[in-house]
UniProtKB/TrEMBL annotation:
Organism: Brochothrix campestris FSL F6-1037
Main subcellular localisation: cytoplasm
Gene name of the encoded protein: murB
Cofactor: FAD
PANTHER family found in the cross-reference section: UDP-N-ACETYLENOLPYRUVOYLGLUCOSAMINE REDUCTASE
Protein name, as recorded: UDP-N-acetylenolpyruvoylglucosamine reductase
Keyword Zinc-finger: no
Annotated InterPro entries: FAD-bd_PCMH (IPR016166), FAD-bd_PCMH-like_sf (IPR036318), FAD-bd_PCMH_sub1 (IPR016167), FAD-bd_PCMH_sub2 (IPR016169), MurB (IPR003170), MurB_C (IPR011601), MurB_C_sf (IPR036635), Oxid_FAD_bind_N (IPR006094)
Family: Belongs to the MurB family.
Amino acid sequence: MIEKIAAELTEMNDALILKIDEPLHPYTYTKTGGNADIFIAPHTVAEVQSVVKYAHEHKIPLMVLGNGSNLIIRDGGIRGIVLYLMNMNKITHTNHTITAQTGAAIIDVSRYARDISHTGLEFACGIPGSVGGALHMNAGAYGGETKDVLNRALVLTETGVLLELDRETLEAGASYRHSLIGDKNYIVLEADFLLCEDSEAMIAAKMADFTEQRETRQPLEYPSCGSVFKRPAGRFVGPMIQEAGLQGYTIGGVQVSTKHAGFMVNVNNGTATDYMALIAHVQQVILEKYDVQLEPEVKIIGEQE
């Protein structure tokens, strides 16, 4: 069945990059996860649209994969099609608007803005995700959020219909680590960021400060999925985990970071199963100690091994 699907997709577009039973751990920041039945890395909007339409028409599960920075793929992998969008990474600008394709790293977009002396994306200089991921979860840091500068998005629906979303629609559907795009399960193709002119030196100084804070406080020396939990109302996750005595707690090869308790790091060939067990343990301890139910910020997908 998988071979038949792969053959039909290749016949539709012989330029399509397609692999069968592709390991997914190289594509995630945690360096964990099983295999994809079918792995496709498109280069154009037309290729994405044709695959999405095919999957919908044939009722084949489809999962979109970007930079894999805020994601845990279970060890059993992904059934159906994984659509890997990181080859679509062009960044351009016109006047005060930067247009970036879905696979462009949001860090690179912030640097592009700096280089053309435009302010507004400095907060994103340390966010490791793609543009598509940033829109999907309304990524933010240092007091800024993606919705603050997002002016337009070109997306695909689950049935393969192209839609253009304006600033008003996008902003109305966005909140902390949440977006209309995520609610509707839209596939981001490109985004417009509306910025303002400013001194390149001032922008660079702000980004340097944010980068120093990030490097000082976050365990960047190990694979991780970033901040694991959403911030509950009136609380900070890291201090709660630290006060509960969980910093350094390890299951398998995955550890609650000794540098920042809000992170879980892969210190010794950890698996997605290790991550899941550690997340569940931290949630249980925090619930018992503080009566706070921690909600994962990281997206968890795929099959159990």
